[in-house]
Amino acid sequence: MTTSAVRIGLLYPELLGTYGDRGNALVLERRLAWRGMPAELVEVRAGTPVPASLDVYVLGGGEDAAQAAAGSALRESAATLGAARDAGAACLAVCAGLQLLGERYVGVDGAPVAGLGLIDAETVAGPRRCVGECVVDPAGGGGEGAGLPLLTGFENHAGRTVLGPGVQPLGTVRLGAGNGNGVDGAIGERLVATYLHGPVLARNPALADLILSWIVGALPALDDEIVLRLRAERLRSQGRTLPQLRRRRRQRRSGSVA
Question: Where are the beta strands (DSSP E) in the chain?
Fold first, then answer.
């Protein structure tokens, strides 16, 4: 377990901060502070070299132009990010962050753009955006996500992401689109990538604690009663939505709904 302050890096928040994703870094810092553990939030502004000394790297979502700008700048720090992860740092990447960490992504203009190559994945923009609430059943079977509860969030993206062989998805999609093929994101050694906004760690504190445990080891429990009540309300709402969507899909297939 580390005894020094955990350094949580928020990368390019002015470009990769759509839908409050910067809140993920704040959640990590607060959940350490509430446990009496030292933490430092480090904002890495666009155009600034990414330091190799951070313990957690947080990337959020961004519109097409912002994502392209962030990608161009981050490629110069790809080696630094890779070395930091090899040295034990953790990483959370949301939406555009997920796409940037892959091998490449193809935008709506059809032009391929090289990613950072930290995840064996490729993203291609689809014909329509995936927008709405999303529920993900985390990967089990003793993988990195084993033991997590259902994950909730919302998505707003056009990307369809295909994972390479051996890359484990974060989980199976119960509601929503995720990667576009029945799963969402990716999870690996000290890595979480997802299409879930919310911010995802505010909605899913167990996921935040999983990431922190990779850095500091086992964590004392927190009183998350309020958060859990909000999660339960959100899941009840999504549980009502899911049967409605299934009925509409069946009606569309049968031609009974325009």
Answer: 6-11, 39-44, 56-59, 90-94, 104-106, 112-114, 121-138, 151-163, 171-175, 183-184, 186-188, 191-194
Longest dimension (CA), the chain: 63
Q: How far is CA 214 from CA 43, 53, 94, 146, 246, in A?
A: 21, 16, 18, 14, 38
Checking phi first, is residue 196 left (phi over 0); if not, alpha (psi -120 to 50) or beta? Answer: beta
The confidence score (pLDDT) of residue 256 equals: 46
169 CB-near residues (< 8 Å, 6+ apart): 139, 163, 178, 179, 183, 184, 185, 186, 187
Minimal CA–CA distance to 144: which of 84, 174, 186? 186
Asked if residue 8 lies in contact with residue 28, where contact means CB atoms within 8 angstroms, the answer is yes
**What percentage of the chain reaches a pLDDT higher than 90?**
68
Please report, for residues 152, 176, 247, the alpha-carbon distance to residue 133 in angstroms, rounded to integers and kept in the order given: 8, 6, 17
pLDDT, tens only, 35-80: 999 999 999 998 889 999 999 999 999 888 888 888 888 988 889 9
The answer to pTM > 0.85 is: yes
C-alpha span between 49 and 223 (Å, rounded): 38
**Distance between CA atoms of residues 144 and 241, nearest Å:** 29
Q: Collapsing DSSP states into helix, strand and coil, what is residue 180?
A: coil
DSSP state of 258: -
d(CA 50, CA 75): 10
**pLDDT band at 4, cuts 50/70/90?**
confident
Instruction: Tell me the two tokens of residue 65.
Output: 């132009």
| Measured distance CA(83)–CA(222) in Å, rounded | 32
